[in-house]
Specification:
Elements: E1 4-5, E2 20-22, E3 28-30, E4 34-35, E5 47-49, E6 56-58, E7 65-67, E8 74-76, E9 83-85, E10 92-94, E11 101-103, E12 110-112, E13 119-121, E14 128-130, E15 137-139, E16 146-148, E17 155-157, E18 164-167, E19 173-175, E20 182-185, E21 189-193, E22 200-203, E23 212-216, E24 223-225, E25 232-234, E26 241-243, E27 250-252, H1 263-274, E28 297-299, E29 306-309, E30 314-316, E31 323-326, E32 335-337, E33 346-351, E34 360-364, E35 369-374, E36 377-383, E37 392-396
Parallel strand pairs: 1-4, 5-7, 6-8, 7-9, 8-10, 9-11, 10-12, 11-13, 12-14, 13-15, 14-16, 15-17, 16-18, 17-19, 18-20, 19-21, 20-22, 21-23, 22-24, 23-25, 24-26, 25-27, 26-28, 27-29, 28-30, 29-31, 30-32, 31-33, 32-36, 33-37
Antiparallel strand pairs: 2-3, 34-35, 35-36
Keywords: Secreted
Biased composition (Acidic residues): 139-154
Protein name: Leukotoxin
Length: 405
């Protein structure tokens, strides 16, 4: 394809966009790509309309509005705050400098915001979205998408499909949506909602003490790993595996949150954490002991962790002073505490508000395990060198204790 440079000289023809013009013999020709002489000025705000053919469009400097229409198009917004719609086809859209809005439309599209605070939407198809620098918003839409936010404090909505998300440096908010997703989080304050499906939520690095994550597994059998900081991991429905790694972490095995946070609430929570304040849940959202009855695996790792165990769950505190929090009532399948150390760990039993404080007893099974009973009903199996009823702390739900969720 031969580029055509059109100069705005006196008496010459200046063309911006993609047009057809009549030749002297009456035949029509189509400009496949319109560029400009770099030494000549171009209008600051170019409205560019494509055709149903495959095209290459370079907009130059200015706040441009570009509709590439059909075909497999390549569009470069160059400088300025541009709005680019790829239309149908497998398009490649480049925002370049400025705060750009890129819409892939139908097809398997590649969107790159580059510099600036950009908004990228893949819509239908298996799309690749890259935010690069700036505080960007990425929405994969439907399809199996790949989203890389780059640097900055970004919002990433993977959408429906089996998506791969790379949350790079910055304080990011990520929502996996429906599908079996791989969601990666890096240094910073990150809030992640895995969504429906069997998701993997994993860090780029385990050893960053400045990282702090809030991760909701929601529905599905999820594999969730925290960061090197102080993390809150909520498994949600399904059989989940939670690993806190280093830091002082909170691990909740089952459906412990009354509802998921909305995007606006996540943004507000991120601002709270950025200010160095503790998380305050929004109105109508509460952490409550609601065991989902599905086997979850919790591993606190290094640090002083709190592990909330329900029916059929197993917990390993790892190194540090860990708290194992058990549910009220008899369980069909006992919760298991796999590494209790009476010299540094605690076991907390939360009973229902308004109920009589239960009688705790412990049975030594003779094989290195002990069974905890509340009013004669077994609630947990504990692997420990020794354990007695005095090692179990009773907390009434609704009290002022930090464990009374």
């Amino acid at each position: 394809m031969l580029p055509i440079y059109l100069m705005g000289l006196l008496g010459a023809l200046a063309i911006y966009g993609v047009y057809e013009w009549g030749r002297e013999d009456g035949q029509n020709e189509t400009v496949d790509a319109v560029t400009g002489d770099p030494d000549e000025p171009t209008p600051p705000d170019d409205p560019l309309q494509g055709t149903d053919e495959s095209q290459s469009i370079l907009a130059f400097v200015g706040n441009d509005s570009i509709n590439a229409a059909g075909g497999d198009d390549t569009v470069d917004g160059a400088g300025g705050d541009d709005t680019i719609d790829g239309g149908t086809g497998n398009d490649e859209l480049l925002g370049n400098d400025g705060n750009d809005s890129l819409l892939g439309g139908d097809g398997n599209d590649t969107l790159n915001g580059m510099d600036g605070d950009d908004t990228l939407s893949g819509a239908l198809g298996d799309d690749s979205l890259s935010g690069a620098a700036g505080n960007d918003s990425l929405d994969g839409g439907e399809g199996d998408d790949s989203l890389d936010d780059g640097e900055g404090d970004d919002i990433i909505l993977a959408g429906a499909g089996d998506d791969t998300v790379f949350g790079q440096a910055g304080d990011d908010i990520t929502s996996g949506g429906a599908g079996d997703d791989l969601l990666r989080h890096a240094g910073g304050i990150d809030l992640v909602q895995a969504g429906e499906g069997n998701d993997d939520v994993l860090p780029f690095s385990f050893d960053d003490p400045n990282s702090t994550v809030w991760i909701e597994g929601n529905a599905g059998n999820d594999d969730i790993e925290g960061s090197g900081g102080n993390d809150t991991l909520l498994g949600g429905d399904g059989s989940d595996t939670l690993a806190g790694d280093s830091g002082d972490d909170l691990l909740f095995s089952g459906d412990y949150i009354s509802r998921s946070l909305t995007l606006d609430e996540l943004i507000a929570t991120r601002a709270t954490l950025q200010a160095g304040d503790p998380i305050v849940l929004p109105a109508g959202v509460a952490l409550a002991v609601n065991d989902d009855g599905v086997a979850d695996v919790l591993n606190g790792g290094a640090g002083n962790d709190d592990l909330y165990l329900g029916d059929n769950d197993s917990g390993t505190g790892g190194s540090g002073q860990d708290d194992f929090v058990l549910l009220d009532g008899a369980l069909a399948d006992l919760a298991q505490i796999l590494d209790y150390d009476e010299t540094e760990d605690s076991i907390v039993y939360v009973y229902d508000e308004g109920e009589t404080e239960p009688m705790i007893s412990v049975t030594d099974n003779g094989d290195g395990t002990h069974t905890i009973l509340a009013d004669g009903a077994a609630v947990a199996m504990v692997t420990a060198s020794s354990l007695s009823a005095s090692n179990v702390v009773l907390i009434e739900r609704g009290s002022d204790s930090a464990f009374a969720v």
